[in-house]
Design a protein that fits this description.
binds ligand 2KA, 7-CO-7-deazaguanine_synth-like, binds iron/sulfur cluster, binds S-adenosylmethionine, TIM Barrel, binds magnesium ion, 218 residues, alpha/beta
Length: 218
Amino acid sequence: MSAVTDLLAALPILHTPITGVILPVMEQFYTIQGEGFNAGRAAYFIRLGGCDVGCVWCDVKESWDADAHPRQAVAELVAAAAAHPGRNVVITGGEPLMHNCGPLTGALQAAGFQTWIETSGAHPLSGRWDWICVSPKKFRAPRPDVLAHADELKIIVFNDSDFAWAEEHAALVPATTRLYLQPEWSRAARMTPALIDYVKAHPRWQVSLQTHKYLDIP
Ligand SMILES: C[S@@+](CC[C@H](N)C(=O)[O-])C[C@H]1O[C@@H](n2cnc3c(N)ncnc32)[C@H](O)[C@@H]1O
Ligand SMILES: Nc1nc2[nH]cc(C(=O)O)c2c(=O)[nH]1
Ligand code: SF4
Ligand SMILES: [Mg+2]
C-alpha cells in the first residue's frame, strides 16, 4: 500500500468505508462496457467490495465481503483511472451505494471523468453521476428515490415471471429511462429466445447482453 493509504488506514475515523475517502476495492480494470446503454464504450471499472443483497445468481459473489478487499484512497483511484486514454469510469461492485460515493465521484468529475454507476438501487443514492444504471433485485427491493433517478433500468431475466416484474419497475422510473432486458448468464440459452420475443412485442424494451463475456474480456 502507498504511504497515503498507510496514513489513512492508521486514522480510524477515515478507515471506515462509510466516509468514502478510502474504499474497499475488489478490482479495477480498463475495458469495454459490456452491458446496457453504454455497451461498446471504453471505461475504467472500479469494483467496490461489499454487498448485502445476496442475488443467488450473482456473477461476482466474491465481492460480497467488504472486509476481504484492500482499502484504497480516492486520490489513488483517480490517478489509476487517469493512466488510461478513456474518460469514463464505471463504479460497480458489490453494491457501490453501500458506500458514500460522494468523495470518489466528486474527485473523478473534477479530474474530467464521466461517472457511471451500476447499482441495485437498494441503498440511498450518494455521489454525482453522469449515468445511473439501476438493476433492481427481488432479493432486496430498490428504493423509489433511486429508481426516480435511473437513466437506465436493466432487468435481469432469470425466469418467465421476470417480464411482468420488469413492467412493474418500468412504471416506477421516469418516462425517459432507457429500458433493458438482460438474460441471466447461466440461463441465457433458455431465456434469450423468450426475451427476444418479448422485446419484439414490447419495443420500448431493448436487449442487453453481457458482451464482455462473449468477447472474453474483463
Ligand atoms: C455484479 S452487479 C454489481 C452492481 C450492483 N450490485 C447491481 O447488481 O446492479 C453488475 C451488473 O451485473 C448484473 N449481473 C450480476 N450477475 C449476473 C448474471 N449472473 N447474469 C446477468 N447479469 C448479472 C447485475 O444485475 C448488474 O446489472
Ligand atoms: N466489461 C464489463 N462490463 C460490465 N458492465 C457491468 C459490469 C459489472 O460487473 O458491473 C461489467 C463487467 O464486469 N465487465
Ligand atoms: S446486488 Fe449486484 S453485486 Fe449484489 S448480489 Fe446482486 S448482482 Fe451481485
Ligand atoms: Mg460484471
